[in-house]
Specification:
4-stranded parallel sheet; Rossmann fold; 5-stranded parallel sheet; about 280 residues; alpha/beta
Length: about 280
Amino acid sequence: MAPRIVVYVLIIFLLSPLRAEAAAKRIVSLYPGHTDNIVALGGERQLVAVSKNDDDDMLPKLPRFSAKSGAEEILALKPDLVLTRGLAERQNPQLRSVLERAGVRVVSIEPPRWDEFSSYLRELAALIGSDPAAAEAKLKNIRGTIASEAAKKSGGKSPVVFVEATAKELHTCSPDSWAAKLVELAGGRNAAPDARAIRKGSAIAPYGLERILKAAAAGNIDIYLIQQGTMNASNMKTLVSRPWYPAIKKIKTAVVPEGELSRPSLLGLEAGGRRLIKIFYGE
């Protein structure tokens, strides 16, 4: 190829709007799931701020922003990428336009469902300059390890597990939710496979006390899990204080942090899988 043609092609490539964006160097993450996955993919040093909803022990020295934080606070950190999600954008509808006018790239990615997680990781990896294929391989490895460990410890037995997503009206996890899929990966069976999501795409489903007590009386629940987090502040003390607790007293109960049971992240997947295996089968 002639030198002039080479130069011409190079110029066209550099000016092309289709050219991939450069990897972000200074990232503000406004959703804990994004933060977890950036750390898991090796981008911890690129984070300059995280969400107030991130776990307390996650990068504690970094500034933290709420969904309603002002653009000026964020711009003071000179980010080149702000990662958010639809819920946060609805809570602060003016933030994106102000940041983008200041030249900051804003990318909104919804928390992925179980079968969408691989694609989500590839997209996130590309944004932070990590290898998408390696991210996908890491996911496959973690899921494989959890499934293998569960199979070894289960002895062919699958405990029937009820997940309390919220104490209010006793909502459980919807059958296709992240929590339900993780319980299944760890060798458990969902005690509420007939639960219907509160609305399309929701991870929680109404269930009710009557159905729980009926299943418990019939011996159809082996383990009662409390998902503890922003949606459910319940713990073992509050569970024991409920007037109907004697009806499930003989059922094994445990508390699992929301970030480990229902947050779509590599860190949560690994930690949650290990915790569930321990709860299901012991040490």
